[in-house]
Specification:
The protein is flat. A two-stranded antiparallel ribbon has the order 1-2. The chain has a two-stranded parallel ribbon with strand order 3-4. With 179 residues, the chain is α+β, with helices and mostly antiparallel strands. 28% of the residues lie in helices and 8% in strands.
Length: 179
């Protein structure tokens, strides 16, 4: 990966060689988008932290494999399948759910808060408070629901949200649905 964040770039430059690091959250939990989230999961388990501010994008990167004859989208992110096809000038495959996962976050219930998530696709089916996240706010809203002690999180998936491949992928995984 090559991060776009100026602080991450300076850190890599300062190290002077490739730098590898695991995710800064407990496996399966919502990804951190602020230092506060990292410390919530890993406080006392890490020696140093650098506060680079809130994440610009909010969801994890798009991951593709160019190992196969046809490029394969391993994890959708902010860059869509269509944008990849346009840039690569060829079709991009998306592996079937039956194949073994080839990218982090593509196994079991992932990116999930403590409370179960109910995805609602029709406005009239909403019962009580709900969230309608953006890619930028998704994980912060899930973590906030946990902090508030929510027993269920309703997420309204309108037509616009449903077109967001990366966010819908994370919503389905957080809700424990196979994609």
């Amino acid at each position: 990966r090559l991060p776009s964040h100026a602080t991450a770039k300076r850190l890599i430059e300062g190290v002077g060689e490739p730098l590898v690091a695991p995710s800064a959250n407990l496996s399966g939990r919502p990804s951190p988008t602020r230092l506060e989230d990292v410390l919530e999961d890993l406080n006392g388990k890490i020696k140093y932290e650098i506060d680079g501010g809130e994440c610009d994008v909010g969801i994890e990167s798009t991951v593709i494999s160019l190992f196969h004859p046809t490029p394969t989208l391993l994890r959708p992110g902010i860059i869509t399948k269509g944008e990849l096809e346009e840039a690569l000038k060829q079709k991009v495959d998306f592996p079937a759910a039956s194949r073994p996962p080839l990218s982090p976050g593509m196994k079991y219930r992932h990116y999930a808060p403590k409370a179960p998530i109910k995805l609602v696709f029709r406005e009239e089916e909403l019962q009580g408070p709900f969230i309608q996240p953006t890619s930028h706010s998704f994980y912060a809203e899930l973590r906030n629901a946990d902090r508030l002690g929510s027993t269920e999180i309703q997420i309204y998936c309108d037509a616009t949200l449903q077109k967001n491949e990366g966010l819908m992928n994370r919503l389905l995984r957080a809700a424990g649905q196979i994609v």
